[in-house]
Amino acid sequence: MKPLTIKPELEPDGHVELVRLAEAVLFAAAEPLDATEIAAQLPNGTDISGLLDELRRLYAGRGVNLISVAGKWALRTAPDLAGKIKIGRQSQRRLSRAAHETLAVIAYHQPVTRPEIEEIRGVSLSKGTMDALFEANWIKPGRRRNAPGRPLTWVTTPTFLSHFGLEDLKDLPGVQELKSAGLIDSRPAVSIYSASSKVDELPFGSMTGQAEKTPERDEPLVVGDDFDPNGEAGQVREDGTGF
Questions:
Q1: How far, in Å, CA of 160 to CA of 217, rounded?
Q2: Which residues pair with 66 in a beta bridge?
Q3: Beta-bridge partners for 91
Q4: CATH class of this structure's domain 8-80
Q5: Which secondary structure element, helix H or strand E, spans residue 67, and what is its range?
Q6: pLDDT at site 167
Q7: Has this prediction a pTM greater than 0.90?
Q8: Nearest in space to 198 (alpha carbons), one of 168, 232, 172, 163
Q9: What are the sequence ranges of the domains in the chain?
Q10: Least confident of 28-42, 169-183, 209-223
Q11: More confident call, 206 vs 120
Q12: What fold, for 97-232?
């Protein structure tokens, strides 16, 4: 079968947009889609059968093919390449609401210490919350503050930017964007703000939930493989261990 190559200069703009839209729908889908599900994302009257056939020919001979799976359609790795690639799969972990709030505080207020995170959220921070974000490689230790005890600060990582599709921290959504999306309300903001973020008045107070079940106690900073993401300077565990 001869692969089909779309040439925008030879195709009506409207048709090219339909092909692109159908392609995006199939790419974004977590599971195979049937024609009805695809049609629901496209303008009324779209020739779904013809569009799918066009995409199937477009992807023929490439590293990714459009295939039919039990009457549904999906983009899949070309069968002849299956034995030539090895990609490790990581199990997905659902983050708690506390972890989402903590990540938001760090993202918008970084560099920020653990006590500052607790003050902004209005609740104590459990050990598991920081552990989950640290293990996901979304946060990392920043510089120590030039203050009594030299507390450790926390910042986000390049993995955080990549996961959320951001080029830079300045691309974080602003207050109006978050309000438009219904993610925050218009209640007064808290009194701690980040000078480095364009979101100078983000009302994290509107995100405050119930106190976490496990009260947080001070944890040590352990350097090396047993590094504790909940640690503060100048503290040592009684048993001398890490986590």
A1: 27
A2: 75
A3: none
A4: mainly alpha
A5: strand 64-69
A6: 87
A7: no
A8: 172
A9: 8-80, 97-232
A10: 209-223
A11: 120
A12: Arc Repressor Mutant, subunit A (1.10.10)
